[in-house]
Amino acid sequence: MSNCARMAATKKVAALKAEMPCAPEGVKEIGYAEDVFTRETMREYLSKDTWKKLMQTIDNGQPLDPSIAGEVAHAMRHWAMDRGATHYTHWFLPLTGSTAEKHDSFLELKDGEPVMAFSGKNLIVGEPDASSFPSGGIRSTFEARGYTAWDPTSPAFIKRHGNGATLCIPTAFCAYTGEALDKKTPLLRSMQALSAATKRLMHCFGKGDEKVTITLGPEQEYFLIDKAFYLQRPDLVMTGRTLFGAPSAKHQQLEDHYFGTIKMRILNFMNEVEKELWRLGIPAKTRHNEVAPAQFELAPMFEELNLSCDHNMLVMEVLRQVADRNGLVCLLHEKPFAGINGSGKHNNWSVAYGGVNLLNPGSDPHQNAIFLTTLCAVIEAVDKHADLIRASVATAGNDHRLGANEAPPAVMSIYLGDQLADVISQLEKGAPKSSKHAGTMKIGVDTLPSLPKDATDRNRTSPFAFTGNKFEFRAPGSSASCSAPNVVLNTVVAEAMNRIAGELEKAGVVGKAKPGEHTASFHNALQKILQDIVKSHKRIIFNGDGYKADWLAEAAKRGLPNTPTTPEALKAYTRKENVAVFEKAGVFSARELESRYEIAMEDYTAKVLIEANCALDMVKTMVLPAVRQEYREAISAYNETDASNVKCAIDVLHDEVVRLASGLTATTDSVARLEDAVRNADPEAAIVEMSTLRKEVDALERQVADEKWPLPKYREMLFVY
Ligand code: ADP
Ligand code: MG
Questions:
Q1: What atom of ligand 1 comes closest to residue 216's alpha carbon?
Q2: Is the Cβ atom of 344 under 6 angstroms away from ligand 1?
Q3: Residue 341 in contact with ligand 1 by CB distance below 6 A
Q4: Ligand 2 centroid vs 346 CA: distance in angstroms?
C-alpha cells in the first residue's frame, strides 16, 4: 500500500508539472507595500498635525502622544476596511519562536446596533490571556495576563486569506511587571543601548546628534519538497527533519544545483512568494538554487533592524503558505536531510550614523578612523563575548548544522580578508609616531588602501565575516527569529563602544578641536586604544578555512571557546559576568535572562524527546513490519531452495537471511535503548541512540525491496518536484 502511495506521489508530481503554466504572466503592477500602513498612506488618512506627531515618534523614538492614538486607530481601521479587513490583531513574537495573533473583529454593538469601531486604547495595548506562552517562570508568580504594546516603528500591515483580511499591528509582549515575554522587547532595548553608545562614540569624533540606524539583511535558506512525499514522512510532519533516510546515489557531489537553472515549478512558487512579500513592503531581491538538491535561498534588501526582524518572520510564513498552495512543503529546519547541506540564515548587520554606514571604509582619514574604531569595537565585542554570540544561535536543530563541514563551526572567529587583516596588523605594530610608509598605519593621517568588495568576501567557512561594508554572521539557523543574535550583537558592541568612548573621554582629548577636526593628541590616544584592542583580541581573527579540523586545534590553543551542543552553549547566559553586561545595557534583567535560559533548555529537551518518540513510532510501526516481511520472504526462498533438488545459490540465500536477521536484531536492541533514554527524559542519551538507530535503519533501507519500503526515499524527496 505504501509502495502504491509512493508511486502515486511520483505520478502526481509529473501530472502537476504538466499542468503548470510555463509562459511568463507578463508585467503587472507589483503593488509594492500595498498592504502596509506606510508613511505615505498615513499622510493620506491622518490630519497633518497628527501625522507629524506620529512621524516624530517613529523617527526619533519620542513617546507616543496619547491624544493622537484615537485618530490613528480610526485611520488605521478605515484604511484596513478599505482593503477588506474585518478584524484586527496585535501581532507579536512570543518565546515559542513563532509569531502569535489573536483576532478581534471591529464589530461592536452600540444600543443593539452593529457598528465597526477601533479605539486608540485597542491600538496601544492589548491584554491577551497569555498563560500558555512560555515565560520561564516570570509570569506564574504574578498574574496570567500578558500585555501587548504597539510598536509604531514597525508599520501595521494586512494579512489576506481566501475570503477576508486582518489588520496586523506589530506589538511588544510583556508581563504585568514590564518584564519582557517576547523577542521584540529585548531587541528594541538592545537597539537603544547601541544607539546611545554609537552617539557617545560619535560625539568623541566631534559629530553632532544624528540618528543611529542599525541595519539587517537576513538571507533565508530553505528546502522545498512535494507535499505528497512530506505527508508520508511522520518525521518531517512531527519534527521538520528526516530521522531516517539513506543517502541517494547522487546528492550534492556535482554541485550542479548551486545557482543552476531554476525549475519552472519552483520559479512559479518564488514569483508568487515575492509578489506577496512586495505587497507587504518586504523588499525581496535575490533568489537562487542553493548547494543541496531541493534547497533555495531568498535574500531581501537590508532594512532597519527591528523592521527586518519582523519582516523575516513574515518571509518564513509566506514561504510556508505559498508552498502549501502549490502542493509543496517549505522546510525551514536547519538540517532536514542528513549528508547534505543544512539551512542557515546569514545575518548581515551594520550600523549607520546620520545615514553613513560606519562599517564602510571611507576615502578620507577621518572616515577611516571611524571605520577602524567601529571595526575594532566589533573585534573586541566578539572576542570578549564569543560564548554569548554562540549561545544566541543555539537550538536543537542548529546543533546538526554548526560544525558539520558545510556550515561554520561552533567556534566563533572573525574573518577580515587579507587586506583588512594587514591593515589591522599595521595598526597593531604602528607606534604613534611612525607612518604607513614604515608598514604601519597612522590613524587620522593615513587613508586605508581601497578594499574591493570582492576581496573581502571569498571565505564562506567563517561564522563571522566582514563583507565589505557589514558583518555577516552565518551561524544563525534557518528557522530561528533574527532577534536573539542581534540582541547579543548590539549589546556587546555597545559595551565595547562605550568602553572606547570612556577611554577617549578619560584621556581628555575629546572636544578640543572644531567639529570634524582632531588634535594630534586625540589621534594618538585613539591609536593607542585601537592598538591595545588588536593586541588583546587578535586571537579571534582567523582568515583560514573554518571547516578544517586543524582550525579546531588551533582555536583551542588560542583559548577560543568551542561548544558544539546547545546545553553547553546556553550556559553562557548563566555566567555572572554576562548577566552583568545585559543588566548594565538595560537589555535583560537577571530574571529575564534566567527565564530565557530555562525556556531555551526546555525547548531543547522537548524537541529532542519528540524526535526520539517519533523515531520509535516510525521504526516500530513502519520500518520493522517491512523488514519482517522481507525476512519472512528470505526464509521462504531459502527453505524452498533447500527443499528443491537444485539448491543453487543456497549460500547466498542463507547469507541474506543472516544479514536481515542481524539488522532486525540490532534495530530491535537499539529501540529498547532509545526507549530507556526517553523514559529517563535524557536528551543526551537519546541523541546518541537515535544516531545508532538511524545507521541500522538506513542500512536496512538498502536491503529491503523498494516496493516494501514504507517511507519516501531521499532520491524521491530531493529530486522529484
Ligand atoms: P552576498 O550575496 O555576497 O552575501 P550581498 O551584497 O548580496 O552579499 O548582500 C547580502 C545581504 O546583505 C543583502 O540582504 C543586503 O541587502 C545586505 N546588506 C548590504 N549592505 C548592508 C548593510 N549596510 N547593512 C546590513 N545589511 C546589508
Ligand atoms: Mg551573503
A1: 25
A2: no
A3: no
A4: 6
Q: Which ligand is nearest to the CA of 308?
A: 1
Give per-residue burial for 262-291: e unless 16+ CB within 10 Å, then b. Answer: eeebbebbbebbbbbbbbbbbbbeebebbb
Cβ–ligand 1 contact at 232 (below 6 Å) = no
Cβ neighbors of 554 (< 8 A, separation 6 or more) are 542
357 Cα nearest atom in ligand 1: 23
Determine whether the shortest distance from the Cβ of 623 to ligand 1 is under 6 A. no
Alpha-carbon span 205 to 517, nearest angstrom:
8
Give the Cα separation of 158 and 314 in Å (integer): 11
Residue 202 identity (one-letter amino acid): M
Q: Which ligand is nearest to the CA of 468?
A: 1
- Burial of residue 715 (number of CB atoms within 10 Å: 0-12, 13-18, 19+): middle
CA atoms of 199 and 214, how far apart (whole Å): 12
As beta bridge partners, residue 649 has none
Q: Where are the alpha helices (DSSP H) in 441-548?
A: 453-456, 483-506, 520-537
pLDDT digits (tens, 9 = 90+) for 570-620: 999 999 999 999 999 999 999 999 999 999 999 999 999 999 999 999 999
CA of 348 to the centre of ligand 2 (A): 7
**Pocket of ligand 1 contains residue 300 by CB under 6 Å:** yes
| pLDDT tens digits along 408-423 | 889 999 999 888 888 8
**Ion ligand 2 — residues with CB < 5 Å:** 346
Closest CA to 342 of 404, 284, 287: 404
469 lines ligand 1 (CB under 6 A): yes
% the chain with pLDDT above 70: 93
Q: How far, in Å, from the CA of 460 to the mean position of ligand 2?
A: 9
How many angstroms does the Cα of residue 348 sit away from the middle of ligand 1?
A: 6
- In this prediction, residues 399-403 reach a mean pLDDT of 90
Does any ligand 1 atom lie closer than 6 A to the CB of residue 217? Answer: yes
Q: Would you say the CB of residue 474 lies under 6 angstroms from ligand 1?
A: no
61 backbone φψ class: left, alpha, beta (φ>0; ψ -120 to 50): left
Residue type, 602: E
Q: How many CA atoms lie within 13 A of 145 on its CB side?
A: 8
> Residue 311's closest CA among 398, 390, 220?
220
The residue nearest atom 17 of ligand 1, judged by CA position, is 217
Evaluate whether 170 touches 91 at the Cβ level (below 8 Å): yes
Sorted by sequence, the CB contacts under 8 Å of residue 579 that are 6+ apart come out as 573, 588, 590, 593
Q: Which of 91-95, 225-229, 274-278, 433-437 bottoms out in mean pLDDT, i.e. has the lowest?
A: 433-437
Mean of pLDDT values over 458-463: 80
| Contact 299 CB / ligand 1 (< 6 Å) | yes
Helix, strand or coil for residue 691? helix
Q: Which residues, listed in sequence order, are joined to residue 129 by a DSSP beta bridge?
A: 145
Q: Which of 302, 353, 462 for a ligand 1 pocket mutation test, highest count of atoms within 8 Å of Cβ?
A: 302
Regarding the beta carbon of 315 and ligand 1, being less than 6 Å apart is answered no
What separation in Å is there between the alpha carbon of 302 and the centre of ligand 1? 6
Angle formed at CA 302 by CA 73 and CA 69, multiple of 5 degrees: 10
Name the percent of the chain lying above pLDDT 90: 76
Is the pLDDT score of 370 beyond 70? yes
| pTM (two decimals) | 0.94
533 CA distance to ligand 1 middle (Å): 27
Q: Which of 454, 259, 220 is nearest to 346 (CA)?
A: 220
| pLDDT at res. 449 | 59
- Mean pLDDT, rounded, of the chain: 91
